[in-house]
Design goal:
alpha/beta; Rossmann fold; 7 strands
Length: about 200
């Protein structure tokens, strides 16, 4: 198969329907989309055509990768402005959205975002932590944005209050470039019996 045929499955990217105030986030979304396709991955995402969601989905689609967007009915007017790319699956609510994205994904990548991104990230963490899904890599893209969260998990939740287990913070991988993201995913499956052909 060619590198653009999404032969390695799909990566779920959590990100905002806004681009935020940092222009580098928009560029990072585009470069991540291109990097995923170069390594043979497709995209599963929140289905929006605006903000970072729109950037990453268009980058994957225009590079020849497979795109599946999953969006709840209530968010269609807000998150779709113009024409979305790839396949768009409309579901009834956020619970169904997250469940469907999880079943279609080989990895999770969280970019800078808002409450929805945090909700999706912690849902993915919980699914992996409690073995509700097979182990998959969970990546935080842009360490400057996520450093505070990682510090809170380690210093407050783990060290101070012991509300999580010692290995729980290790479920997260911090990355700063698209190349690091795909290398973490490739490396995870290179050592895993779940995907022996990677």
């Amino acid at each position: 198969m060619s590198a653009n045929s999404s032969d390695r499955g799909s990566v779920c990217v959590f990100c905002g329907s806004s681009s935020g105030t940092q222009p580098e986030y928009a560029e990072a979304a585009v470069e991540l989309g291109k990097a995923l396709v170069r390594r043979g991955y497709g995209l599963v995402y929140g289905g929006g055509s605006v903000g970072l969601m729109g950037r990453v989905s268009k980058a994957v689609f225009e590079s020849g990768g497979n795109v599946v967007g999953v969006i709840p009915t209530a968010l269609e007017p807000k998150e779709i402005s113009g024409e979305s790319v790839g396949e768009v699956v409309v579901v009834k609510d956020m619970h169904e959205r997250k469940a469907l994205m999880a079943t279609k994904s080989e990895a999770f990548v969280a970019m800078p975002g808002g409450f929805g991104t945090m909700d999706e990230l912690f849902e993915a963490l919980t699914l992996v932590q409690t073995a509700k899904v097979d182990p998959v890599p969970i990546i935080l893209y842009d360490s400057s944005f996520w450093a505070g969260l990682v510090s809170w998990l380690k210093d407050t939740m783990l060290s101070k209050y012991r509300t999580i287990s010692p290995g729980d913070p290790d479920l997260l991988h911090l990355c700063d470039t698209p190349e690091e993201v795909v290398e973490v995913i490739d490396g995870f499956y290179a050592k895993s019996l779940l995907r022996p052909n990677f």
